[in-house]
Amino acid sequence: MRENIGVARTKNALKAALLSLLHEKELREITITQITSAAGYARGSFYFHYQYKEELLDELIDDTIRGFTTSFKEPYERRRHEFNLMNISYPTVTIFEYIHKNASAFRLFFTRSNMGFQEKLAQAIQAIYIQDMELLFPAIPEHINRDIITHHHVYLLLSFIAFWIKSNFKYSPQYMTEQMLEIAKLNSVSHKNKPLET
């Protein structure tokens, strides 16, 4: 069930306020009054939607990951029958555009290891890879362990993102996307051309 516009606006303001405050101090140092004051709402508005500030943070993290997974699936979700990794290009792949648009959140979550964000993001990416293994990695030989290759690709992508954030978004989303696709295509070709073991 979708939230009405007013509820969504209030929640988004509270989450934006919390995100801003988290760049300045730890969660334990932030009060509900500080959050609502920064958001421009009364304390009652907070307690109408949440019990604790930790609940607000959890929702902020979940929203950020949900947006990421939606962007990740965008190139193939509605065109599975014609999807081919070798044929996709920058305009179709939007995960780096999404990260750049939400740079404040990703910068925070990748520099604060105590929030559990990276673990949750890794789990979300892993779930996608497991569900869509044959679609995303069609050239992997049968003798390659699926659990191992999934773990490899999950942390390859996470390290790609972490590098970009650590560089303070030195490269454009388009450049990062093109580099990621070239590496993915290179891996796909190498798997396909690798001779079978005897």
**Helix segment tally:** 10
Distance between the termini: 55 Å
> What do the pLDDT scores average to?
90
- Estimated share of beta-strand residues: under 5%
Alpha carbon gyration radius: 20 Å
Characterization of this structure:
With 198 residues, the chain is an all-alpha fold. The chain has two domains: 1-51, Homeodomain-like (Arc Repressor Mutant, subunit A, Orthogonal Bundle), CATH 1.10.10; 52-193. It contains ten helices and no strands. The protein has helices spanning 5-22, 32-39, 43-49, 53-73, 95-101, 103-111, 117-131, 133-136, 146-166, 173-193. α4 runs parallel beside α7 and α5 (95-101) packs across α6 (103-111). It is elongated. The termini are far apart. The model is unreliable at 194-198 (pLDDT under 50). It comes from Paenibacillus barcinonensis. This is TetR family transcriptional regulator. InterPro entries: Homeodomain-like_sf, HTH-type_Tx_Regulator, HTH_TetR, TetR_C_Firmicutes. Residues 8-68 form the HTH tetR-type domain. GO terms for molecular function: DNA binding.
Topology:
Elements: H1 5-22, H2 32-39, H3 43-49, H4 53-73, H5 95-101, H6 103-111, H7 117-131, H8 133-136, H9 146-166, H10 173-193
Helix pairs in contact: 1-2, 1-4, 4-7, 5-6, 5-10, 7-9
